[in-house]
Amino acid sequence: MRNPFHTDTLEPDQPFCNRARELRELAGHARNGMNVVLFAPRRYGKTSLVTRVQHQIRAEGICVIYAQFMRLVSVEDMVHRLAKAIITGLHEHESLLDKGKRWLAHFPSLQVNLSIDSATGSISIGVQLVRANIPPLEALEEVLEEVGAFLEKEDFLVCIALDEFQDIVDIKEPRVEAMLREHIQRHKASYIFLGSRRRVLLDIFTNKGRPFYQSATMMELAPLPEGECVDFVVQQFRRAGKQCSQDAALAIVRKIECYPYYLQALAYRAFEQCQDNCTVEDMATAYESLLANERYGYQAIIQGISTGQLKLLRGIAKEATAQITASAFLQAHGLSLGGVQAARKHLANQDIIEQDEQGEWRLVDPVFREWLVRTF
Ligand SMILES: Nc1ncnc2c1ncn2[C@@H]1O[C@H](COP(=O)(O)OP(=O)(O)OP(=O)(O)O)[C@@H](O)[C@H]1O
Ligand SMILES: [Mg+2]
């Protein structure tokens, strides 16, 4: 029996829980040429959702381009990723093999190499700069100019997704942000800027002093609705030839607080754990196995933070939600006010902690929280 749960980015044909409204809205914005910022914590399904939307609108004749900016290291790196994404997206819209001559000429700064696998017939695309030693900012400007001029001439719609967009900040070249904004505002396309370090991403679009201020409509991805999650788990079990009662499915969903990645990760383990019928006890065993598996990632987070940050994290985890500047909290966790403020900034920028409507702080990831409580 094949396990029906998946923890990689979901392909458009894989089962997907809910998000019907978000799909509809994103597709609508793409058709209207509107720019959108899509934000949510890590592993909430942003990339899967955008992949799905782009797949859907491509079938309507919209040209879709997807570039991944995760861990950008330099402006040069950005130019390459962007250029490759643009050529790949255009090729999928109008094949380089029969229509390439028509549009490739509009990108004189790029040299495109095609290799065709004779066995499978699949094409791989290599993109380089014609002027290899050009300063990276100049190269970026050229590519953006050429994209703009090309879009101006074409009458098809284009949707460009820039994943983990906030990582442009990490290359520490302030002129990039202004240059991108300058060109993107003139591009005849709809952009989706998505990312998980929400504070960093949102600051780009909501800080008055920054070039992208108020240049896109904001869209937050919430946890999945509880009822939909339960139905999803029950249906996927059934589809794959096993049973999961409503109670067991609800236990799974509540344990991980509707967090999309953990929904699949825990259900995957529960499916492996049970015989033909998943029970609440199977779920509990599966949860322990999930924690054991995830601990490597959690340990890596802990190793990457300072002692003060760890103290704050532990304090918030233990109290579930916390007034972290209250003297009782500081005393209980051996923290100073100055230490808390510095630690909070770092942990919030990394999207490890967040503030709720009441102003209290909590861990973003419920399973990480439980691991912290058990470990320290
Ligand atoms: N609507 C959904 N239905 C079912 N599972 C989902 C859904 N959305 C997300 N998931 C689960 O969450 C996992 C993470 O999805 P995805 O990689 O798209 O998220 P992301 O927000 O882009 O994550 P990251 O922050 O790591 O880039 C998927 O593998 C899948 O298991
Ligand atoms: Mg992603």
Give an overview in words:
- The structure is a single chain.
- The chain is an alpha/beta fold and 376 residues long.
- It folds into three domains: 20-220, Rossmann fold; 226-300, Helicase, Ruva Protein, domain 3, CATH 1.10.8.60; 307-375, Winged helix-like DNA-binding domain superfamily/Winged helix DNA-binding domain (Arc Repressor Mutant, subunit A).
- It is 52% helix and 13% strand.
- It is built from 15 helices and eleven strands.
- It has helices spanning 20-32, 46-58, 75-93, 96-104, 136-153, 175-184, 198-206, 226-239, 246-255, 260-273, 280-303, 307-319, 327-332, 337-349, 366-375; strands at residues 36-39, 63-68, 110-116, 123-129, 158-163, 190-195, 217-220, 243-244, 277-278, 353-355, 361-363.
- The strands form four sheets. Strands 2-5-6-1-7 form a five-stranded parallel β-sheet, with helices on both faces. Strands 3-4 form a two-stranded antiparallel ribbon.
- Helix 1 packs across helix 2 (46-58), helix 3 (75-93) packs across helix 4 (96-104) and helix 12 packs across helix 14.
- The mean pLDDT is 95.
Question: How is this structure best summarized?
Answer:
The protein has 376 residues and is an alpha/beta fold. The chain has 15 helices and eleven strands. The protein has a five-stranded parallel beta sheet with strand order 2-5-6-1-7, sandwiched between helices. Strands 3-4 form a two-stranded antiparallel sheet.
Tertiary shape: globular
- The parts where pLDDT drops under 50 for at least 5 residues are none
CATH superfamily of the largest domain, by name, is P-loop containing nucleotide triphosphate hydrolases
Derived from helix and strand composition plus strand pairing, the structural class reads alpha/beta
* Total of DSSP H or I helical runs spanning 4+ residues: 15
Major sheet size, sense and barrel closure: 5 strands, parallel
Oligomer: single chain
**Mean pLDDT score, rounded?**
95
Using the 3D structure, state the CATH architecture of the largest domain. Answer: 3-Layer(aba) Sandwich
Q: Can you list the strand order of the major beta sheet?
A: 2-5-6-1-7
At the first level of CATH, the class of the largest domain is: Alpha Beta
Strand fraction equals: 5-15%
What is the percent of helical residues?
Answer: 40-55%
- Write the CATH fold name of the largest domain: Rossmann fold
Are any ligands bound, and if so which?
Answer: adenosine-5'-triphosphate, magnesium ion
SSE run: HEHEHHEEHEHEHEHEHHEHHHHEEH
DSSP summary, beta strand count: 11
